Amino acid sequence: MEKKIKKRTRKNKIEVSLNDQELQKLKENLKKAGIKNREYYARKMLLDGYIIVIDQKPIDEIARLVRISANNINQVAKRANETGTVYERDVRDLLDQWEKLYPLIAQARNKIVWLTSQ
Question: Which of 6, 116, 105 is nearest to 54 (CA)?
Answer without folding.
Answer: 116
